[in-house]
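Crash report, auto-generated. Payload:
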Amino acid sequence: MSGLIGLDWGTSSLRAYWLDGAGEIRETRTRAWGIRHLPDGGFDAALTDITAGWPRLPRLACGMVGSRQGWLEVPYMDVPADTAQLGSAVRSLRTKDGLDVHIVPGLRNPQGPDVMRGEETQLLGALALRPALIPDSSWILPGTHSKWARVRDGAVADFCTLMTGELFALLRQHSILCAGSGDAAVDHDAFARGVIAARDSGSAGAFSRLFSARALMLDGALAPDAVPEYLSGLLIGEELRSSLATNRFRHDAPLQLIGDAVLCARYRLAAFHFDLDLAEPLVDAAAHGLWQIACDIGLVSANSSTTSKESSSC
Amino acid sequence: MSGLIGLDWGTSSLRAYWLDGAGEIRETRTRAWGIRHLPDGGFDAALTDITAGWPRLPRLACGMVGSRQGWLEVPYMDVPADTAQLGSAVRSLRTKDGLDVHIVPGLRNPQGPDVMRGEETQLLGALALRPALIPDSSWILPGTHSKWARVRDGAVADFCTLMTGELFALLRQHSILCAGSGDAAVDHDAFARGVIAARDSGSAGAFSRLFSARALMLDGALAPDAVPEYLSGLLIGEELRSSLATNRFRHDAPLQLIGDAVLCARYRLAAFHFDLDLAEPLVDAAAHGLWQIACDIGLVSANSSTTSKESSSC
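Recovered output after restart:
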């Protein structure tokens, strides 16, 4: 049997994909075993469990599993980097079951400086799914540490990290701004007000408007329970405002989205207030990126890819 | 005996001043009894303890003690507001010892919106100490919630809150950025690098550079223990960058500082990288502001102010 086991192994979660010989996803499993939350037995035990019952296939991983705190450190490569370049820097380790795990490097951007691990593989997978975007495209990967990326000629050429998700979590859990807020409820109006406040903050930026959440609440103009949604809008709005202020990312064509559907829907709502076009998000981009790299380095044989889905073939 | 007991009563601390009949400070006491950390017996017990042994004098308070969570809510006044206007809105309550405590209102800025409690009194006290600044001056009051304020014709005309101190505390204690950092040590070089990164972040703003703390650390270009100082510089630098971007605050004359000496010294270091002139900080401004308001509303008699220090007289 041919195929690949792809592992998207981050800080807080582990996702495993079983891909067939044509690069199609046959099964997906998710565990809360990020590299900082491993089960007893560590990396080996996590891998054995999440692949239980699957065939013995080549295994390729991306994400924080390749960091200094991961299973095997794979040094960052500098941008620009394409599939072949990332493939050439893959490193391998022999696991307790006698097979190898191969790990994709992360990327480093000297401008910033900045780093990513895992998103480079998602971007390459997304390009395989949408080859028209290979020459020049701009991407948003929302999350704890959101990434904005520019692709040119199939290579990740530039990127920037915005800590939107982590800042929101810190403010939600610990700030005086949310001291009187109960459980978050979806509130499109409060979210939109936050987005607009960020958009209209000009070059001062939305962090100069953060305290308005408290002043509006004291004014009776924002319900205490609506403060988290207002802050979510303010922070996502600031991510859009600040990234668009740089001209590093094109927005004369739709910006591409990769990630969780609920979070991506928030970004699309926010983008509406910026007259910005965000494409429908892509899912399972990491699996497709791992497949591309596996083909490139010969982990899976090219003649096995008798696929019906050209975009995902080797 | 004439004189005043002035109380600067905030969220996390209480400071009491005994002023003589000429408005000079005779004694100052500080307790950790902010309105959220009161001793057994609450406000009455805190007041009795901190004024123990002092003469029975009129008592005037400012700060969060006048908030909804305070001893008596004194509604915010809208800017612009001067000493007479703040004095006219003072409210009073009878305490268990049979005397009154009078409480100064906070200020609300419809632009923002924004609010302050306590800083308005510090500003009026500072103007009494530096009357040349009464016509038009700009002020920074660094802290958990830093305030930038514009004074015109002796009235607080405009202000803005930057949550610099609270954001730094959140990042220091909870963010992944500081996960590998030990106890903070003063590191002028790391601080300056943060300030410069913020200054050079342009209209994108320094929050788009936050993750550089991690990338620099991974690069070996920033020691893990230096990350907090880098972040302190980045956040104070962003406060300067974003406030100067608005043109709401004049900087063709030195900006005035009120507050804690150590924190103000950080702001002066940061200002150096912006070619910005920050004056020596004023201390005990709240005491002088409370004295001004007490004179205005007749809590202390004008003929008692046979002061040698004209600037602080009624």
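Post-recovery validation: The longest strand of chain B covers residues 155-162.
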